[in-house]
Amino acid sequence: MRVGVLTGGGDCPGLNAVIRAVTKSLIHHGQCEVLGIADGFEGLMGQQPRVQALDWEAVSGILHIGGTILGTSNTANPLKDAATLAQVQANVQALGLDVVVAIGGDGTMSLAHGVAQATGMQCIGVPKTIDNDIAYCERSFGFDTAVATATDALRRIESTANSHHRVMIVETMGRHAGWLALEAGLAGAADIILLPELDYDLQAIAQVCQAREQRQRYTIICMGEGAKQSGASQTVQARVETSPDPVRLGGVGHVLRQQLQPLINSEVRTTVLGHIQRGGDPTPYDRVLASRYGHKAAQLVLAGQFGQMVTLQNGQIGSVPIASVANTQRTVPLGHELLVMAQDIGISLGRSRSKQ
Ligand code: F6P
Question: Among candidates 208, 150, 207, 158, which has minimal Cα distance to 179?
Fold first, then answer.
């Protein structure tokens, strides 16, 4: 069998561990030849496909390295018009690919499903995202690393906040799901955690900061980039119209600083963590988890179970049809145990308790 492997969408720690595990498993167990496709679907969209042979040596020594040796793109859209789609189809045929393993987020899953539907290309999906928001996937690899990075940032911010008696806002990534802000906020001992799932009330936040001005004299707010005030819309940093998902979030931490400053005495400052959360070496947990995802993808290939995406449910690796995942999102449920626990230990979720 000839198997293509691509990484699409935003990168995340652990991608190389998946590439290594899927390639080595396929070489070990089957008569498989593996081709790495450059820069996600972009590598299949030109007149000359851009691929490299992945043998045992090519994927050795990459387990612990962040990013992706294949490169990625979050603007490549193989579905953008009929000519592009036809080119992708022709390239898949010319390369003799029996199946393409697409490692990516919800956007990549939608694209893989769309290309498969339109061209007959066989594919297998491996979910990735630091946002931890893919359906049927209780833990995405990359998330643990991002939580560790954001937690470290919060701990560093705390000592300077304490020294200067400031309110410090730390903005995490996470787009429409608050998992990253929630777990980093809990692990980093934030006083207020703001999530996209729960619109914030400015007065409630100001009250917590004012109360802390009297005693602790500093406050740490951890907020997801998709969080917003009740009745407002999300803070959009830019729109990239060529991208399958054109909205780039970011900057809500600065919006909150401007809103909050007139209401309290302490100085308010904002740190936007940005891509630091996507970079760096994967944690040991993510290396193992990513290897499990990659190994399962190889098993699906060898069993001919095409059209499936690897999943993790109740701690067990499994799979579901990609179609059931495309365009879905796993956000933080409002009654989630971590939210209840956060409030019970005195963390504000940015609303008066009766409204939460
Ligand atoms: O989906 C993963 C993610 O890291 C989001 O949390 C974030 O909004 C987005 O990617 C940023 O993407 P880009 O690299 O295009 O700015």
Answer: 150
| CA–CA distance, 17 with 310 (Å, rounded to integer) | 15
The residue to mutate among 106, 140, 175, having the most atoms of ligand 1 within 8 angstroms of its beta carbon, is 175
CATH fold of the domain at 147-277+333-355: Rossmann fold (3.40.50)
CB atoms within 10 A of CB 281: 16
Is a pLDDT exceeding 70 seen at residue 356?
no
Structure tokens at 328: 């879905």
The three-class DSSP label of residue 311 is: strand
Q: In Å, what is the CA distance from 291 to each residue of 116, 142, 210, 248?
A: 25, 12, 47, 30
Beta-carbon contacts of residue 326 (< 8 Å; ≥ 6 apart): 106, 109, 110, 113, 114
Q: Where are the domains of the chain?
A: 2-141+282-325, 147-277+333-355
CATH fold for domain 2-141+282-325: Rossmann fold (3.40.50)
What are the tens digits of pLDDT across the range 165-190?
Answer: 999 999 999 999 999 999 999 999 99
CA distance 37 to 161: 46
Asked if 4 and 95 count as a contact pair (C-beta separation under 8 A), the reply is yes
Phi, psi (rounded to 5 degrees) for 29: -95, -25
The C-alpha atoms of residue 204 and residue 259 are separated, in whole angstroms, by 12
Q: What predicted TM-score, i.e. pTM, was given to this entire model?
A: 0.96
Nearest CA owner, ligand 1 atom 14:
10
Decide if 2-141+282-325 and 147-277+333-355 have a common fold.
yes
**For residue 162, how far is its CA from the centre of ligand 1 (angstroms)?**
30
Pocket of ligand 1 (CB under 6 A): 10, 74, 105, 129-131, 173-175, 225, 248-249, 278
Buried b (16+ CB within 10 A) or exposed e, 232-263: eebbeeeeeeebbbeeebbbbbebbbebbeee
